[in-house]
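Bug #77: duplicate submission created two jobs. Keeping one. Sequence:
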Amino acid sequence: FNAPQYSEYQFFLYETITTQREKGETFDHIAEWLNKKGYLSVRGKKFKGNHVHSIVKKKRLKDKKLERKYPEEWSDFSLEVVDKRLINYEYWKKCGEINGKINKSKF
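Kept job's structure:
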């Protein structure tokens, strides 16, 4: 699972909201408080109670996914590398040198 990292601001909002919740504040009151303090959502909008709730909920779900342990699984996977170049590198370089000389001689 590859989840994008939280920005400092997103983490600040989450921490601020959870601190306010621990003090017994409602999501609507926290939204009002954030708006009065001049904070905006990550997308630049004013807060509403359901948005504040969503921030906490999504962070918890993300943390739960990141903490999940997956069982180790072995397979018989193998990888074979095949060189499918038509010409080798040394020959290609030599062609480039010759081509460079031809192009220069035209001018």
